[in-house]
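Suppose you are handed a protein chain with no further information: no name, no annotation, nothing but its sequence. What can you learn? This example shows the usual starting point.
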Amino acid sequence: MFIAQKVANEQDIEEILQESLIATVDCLPLYSGKSTLFTWICGIARHEIADYYRKKKIKTFLFSHLPWLEELANEALGPEQIFMRRELEDKVKKTFGRLSEGYAEILRLKYYQGLTVEQIAIKLNETIKGVESKLFRARQAFIKVYTADAS
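A reasonable first move is to predict its three-dimensional structure. Written in structure tokens, the prediction is:
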């Protein structure tokens, strides 16, 4: 997984992945096709990783110097953030549930388990080109189902 190569903590990976998926869907109308969809999504993920650590650094600094601020922030933003995260997780799970098992599996292998295309090819006993093609179709199917649910 692109994110797992840059982030060590499993919870951070999951959070950044969710944020990247949201940003990808939100920005989908801006996709011009000048690069592959995967490269474009990785660019979004790269920005989400930077944003995540920038926010984390700011929070750490503020909360270490102003501990009362953390309590205030948790009270003010906690329930809404929890609700929005759960809502997104539910939508992503629902989208995965509507994909064919083959598409869902290959997306999990690539983006959740962080396997390379070569590793996926070995695991699924397929050619690298076959895996690349299947990943492309799986991403397109995910976007189609996800955006159809938003309509």
